[in-house]
């Protein structure tokens, strides 16, 4: 395997992801426990991440000596490069300006990282984000590429098989970055690249068995891909020790609840408790129009219902969740303060504390598309695996203002038409998420020879890789107008349709 030492960069998980894409298993360890991880894993190579810290600070994190002196191949990225240089006797200084964003490097010499990829004299785009920079190399290193702001953009010590770069190869804005990382793990570290999702499945099943022992696990299904994949994986690991609970809050899309129930009970034969709590949720939402109040009420009520069901099955020591990497805020933090709450994402994170349960989260290190791949590996049907994400609070946050059963029904119909048209046009998989929003705004229209005075429906469709940033999907006007016509003709209560042209940021994907 490869050991990735995390110095607290925002993008350390992307390094792990690129290594997985190169068919190699890796583990991430925070720098503070990297020495133990190194001893346990006996890795073929080590990658040192970036960091918001500075090696010039007295408390800047260090590469543990056992790793530094191990003789194993190493790759330092950004802070990793500076730490290597600093600790091996070179010099790092605070840059006066720094480089942030797109930069170009010129290849000056060949090295193992560039095999089959970059030639001397070429210029390549990379993504930089640094203030400090290396100003004198440690002994045994030579520069192999330079940028305008960093004369030592890539450095190599061939004898010791240590390489380092000032830029970030793990991000997509370094177009050849994934290949550089692949060259490191395959050519420099000599790993064969035979690790696959099938291996991940096996490893995780073993880990789940170890963690759970004879304990009972309860898993909340949301109807989405993540919790379904987690549940199927855990069921494969521990069978009957798992109980799934599907809390139907009445805020699901058309046909959604039925699909989940039939998938679990039918195709997988996994015991599933289906709770119809729609009345409870919709009653509680009466008169509530503030977005955060809606989210909090739904989150809390979800926990109440879930807790009741857990008691009925006689309790469980473990709670399984389909938490993905982008949901995990943990990592090593140097900034101290919590990030600003834009919106309170619904999850069952409040549960373990209240119910005194331990968490089983087998998908914690994966990104959405990797979870889909694992779902396919587990045999989940493509229509399910490929589904657009759907938020826990459901349609409630797509109905600004008060949520009622009637408004949910109107929105469900419009949403179903929109998605059917998207599927028919073959666009579903090109879009990260598409949905309709029902606005609490009435406008005047004319239908037949009569006046109408009805609600506005907004359509949203975005592309994204992780939901953190998003761009609007550029439908052609023809497509949008035919969807609008269908919705207005077929859904009573809507007489006008608009399209949302806001990217994220500044907008969020959901409207609330
Ligand atoms: P926003 O609206 O924050 O959404 O740009 C980003 C992604 O997260 C989904 N989302 C949620 N998912 N519980 C969830 O499970 C939530 O409370 C929640 N809020 C937003 C949203 O659908 C999009 O994919």
TrEMBL record:
Gene: guaA
Pathway named in the protein's UniProt entry: Purine metabolism; GMP biosynthesis; GMP from XMP (L-Gln route): step 1/1
Complex formation: Homodimer.
Physiological role: Catalyzes the synthesis of GMP from XMP.
InterPro entries, alphabetized: Class_I_gatase-like (IPR029062), GATASE (IPR017926), GMP_synth_C (IPR001674), GMP_synth_GATase (IPR004739), GMP_synthase (IPR022955), GMPS_ATP_PPase_dom (IPR025777), NAD/GMP_synthase (IPR022310), Rossmann-like_a/b/a_fold (IPR014729)
Key words, A-Z: ATP-binding, Glutamine amidotransferase, GMP biosynthesis, Ligase, Nucleotide-binding, Purine biosynthesis
Protein name: GMP synthase [glutamine-hydrolyzing]
Binding site for ATP: 222-228
Species annotation: Novosphingobium rhizovicinum
SUPFAM superfamilies, alphabetized: Adenine nucleotide alpha hydrolases-like, Class I glutamine amidotransferase-like, GMP synthetase C-terminal dimerisation domain
UniProt cross-references to PROSITE patterns, sorted A to Z: GATASE_TYPE_1, GMPS_ATP_PPASE
Domain GMPS ATP-PPase: 195-387
Catalyzed reaction equations: XMP + L-glutamine + ATP + H2O = GMP + L-glutamate + AMP + diphosphate + 2 H(+)
UniProt enzyme class: ligase
HAMAP family: GMP_synthase
Gene3D superfamilies found in the cross-reference section: 3.30.300.10, 3.40.50.880, HUPs
Active site (record annotation): 78 (nucleophile), 168, 170
An example molecular function term from Gene Ontology annotations: GMP synthase (glutamine-hydrolyzing) activity
EC number: 6.3.5.2
Species lineage: Bacteria, Pseudomonadati, Pseudomonadota, Alphaproteobacteria, Sphingomonadales
